[in-house]
Write a structure and sequence with these properties.
Chain lengths: 214, 331
C-alpha cells in the first residue's frame, strides 16, 4: 500500500518538477524497535520515484555506523537532505502531517542551494564563527511548526557552521522530556537558548546571537 | 494513520520580478477561496500563506457545519483541500509572512522577510489570532504550559490535568479533543452557561472527563519551572481559589490581525477592516475578506463566501481599470 495518495503524488510531482540540482535523501533505519522507521523509509522511496533528480539512499543505523557518524546522525528514523553539498538539513522522525510541507521545502531549498532569507539575516549569519545546532521540536498535527522548521533549515543552508534538525516530539519522548517540551514548535539553539512558537526571522537571529554569547 | 499536508508551490525562477494581478494576503478559507475564484478567472495570483497555511481549520480538530460534508470533516483535511484547490487553478502559494505593506502607491507593495512583491489588486484575508488572557504568568509560560492550539500540544498532556478558558465553540470543541489525552479537563468560564452551540454543549456535559467552573475568571497562571495551576476568581462571590493543572488552553475569542494596516485602511473601533457589501475597503483595488473584516459571524462558510465576492470584485476592477490590464505580457 503506498503512503501517498494519487492526488498527493500528482501535487508533489508538480512541486518537484524542474529541480535545478540533484538531491540525495540519505535515510537511516533499522529492522527492529523503531516506530515509523518502515514508514519513513517508504516515504523517502516514494518521493524519490517522483523526480529523476532525487535519489534515496537507505542505511542501517547499526550496520552502517560509520556513515551515520559521518553525517552526525544520532537517532532514527533520520533523513539527511543533501544537495550539491551537505548543508546540515536533517529530519528526525517521519515528516508526515504538516511536516510534509517542511520536507518538500527542504528538498526544493537544497536543490536551489541559495537561502531564502532577508539581507539582514544573511549578514548576521555570515558573522557566525562557531558551530550552531538548531533543534526544532514539532508534532505532526501542528500547523505552525513548518514555519519554524523551514526557517531553521534555511539558516543551515546559509551557513556552513549551522546545522538544523526537525525533531518529531512524539517519536522521541525522552528528548521532549529532556528539553521540557510542553508546546510546539519549540526551538533549541546550542542546548542553551530556546524559542517558543514560530518566531519571525529577526527574533531567531537575535536568539542565535544570544546563544553565541552576544 | 498518516496524513500528508502540502502547502507549497514550485519555486519561481525569478521571484518577485513581475507585477501580480492579485496578491492574496493570508491562506485561510477566505484567502484560498478568493484564490480559487481568481485562478479560474485566469487572474495571475500569488497567495502569501502566513504562519497558518489553510487558516484556522488547520488547528481545529473537526468541522461539522461546512456544507457538503454530512459526516463532518477533519480540520486539517479541510485545510489541505482548500490549499490543493487553490493550487490546482493556478494560484502560486508561498510559505512566507507579510511584514509590511504600502497601499499609497501603485502597484501596491507587499513585503515579506525575504522579498518584495507588487500587485495591482489585493485581497486581505489575514484572519484573526487568538486573544490572550493578559494575566501574570501567561507570557512566561506561553508555549511551555499555556497554549492556544490543542491539536499542536494535546500530546504533551497525556494523563494530565488541564484548564480550558472560555465557553464558546472553540473552547468546547478543543476541550473535548483534549479529553483524549488529559485525564481531566476543567473549563473555566466567566458566565453561568456556555455560549457554544447546543450540540457541543450536550457532548461536553456528557463527557466524564470534563468539569466546569462557572462565573469564574483566571487571574494568574502559577508555577516555577512548569505550570502548576491557575488562580481563579469567582465573579459573583469575589472569592479566589487555586486550581491545580499542568497546562492551560486559552480560547477566549479572536482579534483581527490588522496592525499592518493602521493608518492605511479604515478600521472600526475594534480593529476590523471596514468593508462594504462588495468587500471593498477604503482604498480602491484593495479588498478584504473573512474574519479580518467580520466582527459578527466568524464562520468558515461566511469567510469563504466573502473571499469569493472579493475575487469577483477583483476581476471587475481589473477589467475596469486599464492601468492594470489583464493578460498583458509583463510576465
Ligand atoms: C478552534 C476553532 C474552531 C472553529 N470551528 C469552526 C467550525 O466548526 N465551523 C466554522 O464555520 N468555523 C469555525 N471556526 C471559525 C473559522 O475557523 C474562521 O471563521 C475562519 O477560519 C476564518 O477564515 P479566514 O480565512 O478569514 O481567516 P483564518 O482562518 O484566520 O486564516 C488567516 C490566514 O492568514 C494568514 N496570515 C496571518 N498573518 C499573516 C501574515 N502576516 N502574512 C500573511 N499571512 C498571514 C494565516 O497564516 C492564515 O492562513 C473555528 C475557529 C477556531 C479558532
Amino acid at each position: 500500500m503506498p503512503l501517498l495518495s494519487d492526488e498527493i503524488r500528482q501535487e508533489v510531482s508538480k512541486i518537484l518538477a524542474n529541480l535545478p540540482r540533484s538531491v540525495r535523501l540519505v535515510m537511516f533505519t533499522q529492522e527492529v524497535e523503531c516506530a515509523y522507521c518502515a514508514e519513513t523509509r517508504q516515504l523517502v522511496e516514494e518521493i524519490a520515484e517522483l523526480s529523476d533528480r532525487i535519489t534515496a539512499e537507505i542505511y542501517d543505523f547499526q550496520a552502517d555506523r560509520a556513515k551515520a557518524e559521518e553525517l552526525g546522525i544520532d537517532k532514527i528514523p533520520a533523513i539527511a537532505v543533501i544537495g550539491a553539498q551537505d548543508y546540515g538539513v536533517r529530519f528526525y522522525g517521519i515528516p508526515a502531517g504538516y511536516e510534509f510541507t517542511s520536507f518538500l521545502h527542504a528538498i526544493q531549498s537544497v536543490a536551489v542551494g541559495k537561502p531564502d532569507l532577508s539581507d539582514a539575516t544573511l549578514h548576521a549569519l555570515a558573522e557566525v564563527r562557531q558551530p550552531v545546532h538548531i533543534q526544532v521540536f514539532v508534532t505532526p498535527t501542528c500547523p505552525y511548526c513548518p514555519q519554524a522548521v523551514m526557517l531553521a533549515h534555511q539558516m543551515a543552508i546559509a551557513s556552513p557552521l549551522i546545522r538544523a534538525d526537525m525533531i518529531e516530539a512524539t517519536e522521541f519522548p525522552h528528548l521532549a522530556f529532556k528539553y521540557q517540551v510542553m508546546g510546539v514548535p519549540r526551538t533549541v539553539i546550542n542546548e542553551t537558548v530556546h524559542i517558543e512558537g514560530a518566531a519571525p526571522e529577526s527574533i531567531v537571529v537575535a536568539k542565535l546571537r544570544e546563544a553565541l554569547g552576544g | 494513520m498518516l496524513d500528508f499536508q502540502l502547502a507549497l508551490s514550485q519555486p519561481e525562477a525569478h521571484p518577485s520580478e513581475g507585477v501580480y494581478d492579485l496578491i492574496v494576503l493570508g491562506g485561510g478559507p477566505a484567502g484560498l477561496t478568493a484564490a480559487i475564484y481568481a485562478g479560474r478567472a485566469r487572474i495571475q495570483t500569488l497567495v502569501i500563506l502566513g504562519p497558518l497555511p489553510g487558516g484556522q481549520p488547520a488547528n481545529t480538530e473537526e468541522v461539522e457545519n461546512f456544507p457538503g460534508f454530512p459526516e463532518g470533516i477533519g480540520g486539517a483535511d479541510l485545510a489541505r483541500r482548500f490549499l490543493a484547490q487553490a493550487e490546482r487553478f493556478g494560484a502560486r502559494l508561498i510559505p512566507a509572512s507579510v511584514t509590511g505593506v504600502d497601499l499609497s502607491i501603485r502597484p501596491f507593495i507587499i513585503r515579506t522577510d525575504g522579498a518584495t512583491y507588487r500587485a495591482h489588486t489585493l485581497v486581505i484575508a489575514m484572519g484573526a489570532v487568538p486573544r490572550r488572557l493578559g494575566v501574570p504568568g501567561e507570557d512566561r509560560f506561553f508555549g511551555r504550559g499555556v497554549s492556544t492550539c490543542a491539536t499542536c500540544d494535546g500530546f504533551f498532556y497525556r494523563d494530565k490535568r488541564v484548564v480550558v478558558v472560555g465557553g464558546g465553540d472553540s473552547a468546547i470543541i478543543e476541550g473535548l479533543y483534549l479529553t483524549r489525552f488529559a485525564r481531566e479537563v476543567i473549563v473555566v468560564h466567566r458566565r453561568d452557561q456556555l455560549r457554544a452551540t447546543r450540540i457541543y454543549q450536550e457532548r461536553a456535559f456528557a463527557n466524564p472527563r470534563m468539569r466546569f467552573l462557572w462565573d469564574s475568571v483566571v487571574e494568574e497562571i502559577l508555577g516555577e519551572q512548569t505550570v502548576t495551576g491557575v488562580r481563579v476568581r469567582h465573579l459573583k462571590t469575589g472569592e479566589t481559589s487555586i486550581i491545580e493543572a499542568d497546562g492551560v488552553f486559552v480560547y477566549i475569542g479572536m482579534e483581527p490581525q490588522t496592525q499592518l494596516f493602521v493608518g492605511q485602511l479604515e478600521l472600526d473601533e475594534h480593529g476590523y477592516i471596514i468593508t462594504d457589501r462588495r468587500q471593498r475597503t477604503s482604498v480602491p483595488g484593495v479588498f478584504a475578506a473573512g474574519d479580518i473584516q467580520d466582527p459578527f459571524y466568524r464562520q468558515l462558510v461566511v469567510a469563504a463566501s466573502t473571499g469569493a465576492i472579493a475575487a469577483m470584485e477583483v476581476e471587475k476592477y481589473l477589467e475596469l481599470y486599464p492601468q492594470s490590464p489583464q493578460g498583458s505580457d509583463r510576465w
